[in-house]
Amino acid sequence: MATFANHSTNESSGQNRRCSFKEDFKYILLPVSYTLVFVIGLALNFTAMYVILFRTKRWKPSTVYMFNLTVCDTLYILTLPFLIYYYADENDWPFSEPFCKLIRFLFYANLYGSILFLCCISLHRFLGVCYPMRSLSWVSARRARLVSVAVWACVLMCQAPVLYFSRTRDEGTERVCFDTTSPELFHDFLVYSLVVSMLLFAFPFMVVMVCYGLMVRKLLEPAWGAGGSQSRGVGVIAPHRSKQKSVKMIIIVLVAFMLCFLPFHLTRSLFYFLRYLEQMDPSQVSCELLKASSMAYMVTRPLASANSCVDPILYFMAGQGFRSNLANKNQSIAKEIRKRDGRPFEAGLTVRRVNRCTE
């Protein structure tokens, strides 16, 4: 999506040195990668949406967050055909400037909406694993809906400036749709981008890392999930299975988070910083370094888009199917408890504890 590197130098006034380079590889990389994301992501997210809306009888807090995450991803995926056409036509935007603003807005809204909803899911799972009983009164589907409204409000408010910064410009016979902003507004955009990255990426990323670190430590404790039924040897198998699944889920989420979001933000920050230095004093930055940073930034943009494919995979692997399997196991455990010692209340408590810790 990065069109700024190709045009910003030639459009900047007052420069004693020009640094211009071609990025023809993106006219193949971006259409192909976005086509794959569109086809795979659309199928996975529509399937996830169908399961959530028509196959989920009772919405739990994690279901609410996953629904909003799926909506966020679907809105972005539906914009990809326009970007595919744009880059396949080598940066010639055939649509209006307001539509360019909308497309860029939806990209960043999806990006940071996904990060915040993954942060919400991580916090919810953290409470379920580390505070399984006390969190019963803390979390609910109603509160999850209120949190989701707050997340959407935060995303829309923080990304509203994108509608101002994003714009088009005619260059010869082509019309460019800037994914950042026009060169004369780049300094203001740089400050805005830095603030948004700190608030909507760096801080949520630290929260996710802390939550999963504490969850891993809790899950590795020998007594986790055993509760009062451990002494009778009942109700231990399901927590052991859920522990293994939870650890795998944590690893996959962290890997996906670091592959999709971290490289994009690092390379984008580096490219913006070098571009700023080049505009202030062209002698400080070589064209080769600027070109390398732009190429790295370009490669990570499809990775950021790929989170739209990763999110529903995580839902199906660690969510719906896993909870269904645990529910079946918990029913068997409850029946066994009733037969052995006639303690239906403890059976219900064991089932609820396991479900809460693995939602």
TrEMBL record:
The chain crosses the membrane at residues 32-53, 65-87, 107-126, 146-165, 189-214, 250-274. One of its GO terms (cellular component) is plasma membrane. It is found in: Cell membrane. One of its GO terms (molecular function) is G protein-coupled UTP receptor activity. It is a multi-pass membrane protein. One of its GO terms (biological process) is adaptive immune response. Residues 44-315 form the G-protein coupled receptors family 1 profile domain. Keywords: Adaptive immunity, Cell membrane, Disulfide bond, G-protein coupled receptor, Immunity, Membrane, Receptor, Transducer, Transmembrane, Transmembrane helix. Belongs to the G-protein coupled receptor 1 family. PANTHER family: P2Y PURINOCEPTOR 2, PURINOCEPTOR-RELATED G-PROTEIN COUPLED RECEPTOR. This is P2Y purinoceptor 2.
